[in-house]
Design brief:
binds manganese (II) ion, 10 helices, about 290 residues, TIM Barrel, globular
Amino acid sequence: MPVNKLGVHALVFAGGTTPAEVDYIIGETEKSGYDLVEFSLHDSPQLDVAAARASLEAAGLGVVTSRGLSFTADVSSDDSAIVARGATLLHDSLAITEQLGGTHFTGALYSALGKYMRPLSTAGRANVVTVLKELATEAAGKGMTLGLEICNRYETNVINTAADALRLADDIGEDNVLIHLDSYHMNIEEDDFVRPVKLVGDRLGYVHIGENHRGYLGSGHIDFASFFHALADISYTGPITFESFSSAVVSPTLSNDLAIWRNLWNDGPELATHAHEYMVNIIDGSSRVYS
Ligand code: MN
């Protein structure tokens, strides 16, 4: 089995986080062989945190949380009231992550998830650095890690490439701020699937595996062999999470932010089992070196 913990995004199974949905998500995550589940905190007010934690522990599953911000609560804004709302969302989400028993909080923590109509401003970038430095300090006190997920140009104007993310992490300047690569976004923005991995190196903390259209692994054109070889070459041992979306399973918030308009699958449990087997095999193959 791979050294990496393998995860699955909860939206493969259910669009929300009501108690019934959380039980279903956790049951299906366990059945399809994963080590952890990633919950988006977009509709966290619905989430019964204590019950979810108890179910995760009973199933022996780890948990990672993720989120993006919104245009009315955005730490990359020039408007201090909008920045403050974004900072509050981040601090609340970090607290929920801790209460769930998680140590990884990741995503577009630095901006809204959506199409910006102008470049990031100097003042907006400085606001990102200030807020995330404070959040990272708070997280470090809890033994927790923040991830900067690099997203494509249609979802953020803050960081689109590994080089952008490293510059931002350097400016934040806290050791518990790690880089999160996602093959779906890399396909749009990076030169290939090797250079960004080598550039990030031991600052890589989390990985999303998704096809170019976010459907079944292997049904699109992402060069997963190159990506997994590169991960093996830097001896990446952190979590790797399968992320896929279809109009068959809809979150009223996140699905719209991510422009999920197409039906790429109907059967989430079958999709999850397929992706787990795909990742186990390619990680195993990538680690076999004969010379
Ligand atoms: Mn992702």
